[in-house]
Specification:
The chain has 145 residues and is mainly β. Helix content is 8%, strand content 62%. The chain has a single domain, classed as 60s Ribosomal Protein L30, Chain: A. It is globular and about 45 Å long.
Length: 145
Amino acid sequence: MVKDMLKGEIGGIYFSRILEDEDLVKAVKKRVEEAGVKAGIFILIGSLKRATLGYYKEGKYRFTQIEGPLEIASCMGNIAVDKEGNTVIHPHIVVADEKGEAFGGHLMENSPVGATAELVIIEAKGVHLERAYDEKTKLNLWKLG
């Protein structure tokens, strides 16, 4: 197997509806924790009233807000834990406005759901995904193995 690669098995698959005005990032994390998932991926569709996006540049995140209503064209991310075992989700999103213009980036808190969001969580079994601080990039990256 290639270095820096883990092999796991699909565990549970969870389906959840996130309600209007819930903060999307907090809502996904809450549902991941309630499901007891420590490693995996998630995908979702739906709408947002506003998207707060983060862009990593020169060692730090910069933030921008896109006012809605916005359609979630794509949102996906991965699930891991930090060194203390706390849940860490890493969501990326592409949203489109009413003109069809698309915006994307790292999804941040302060992104309230519009009418609804439909979430699918896919659990990975048999792997330990941990995020740890990387001095070179100044990011919390996967520590595999």
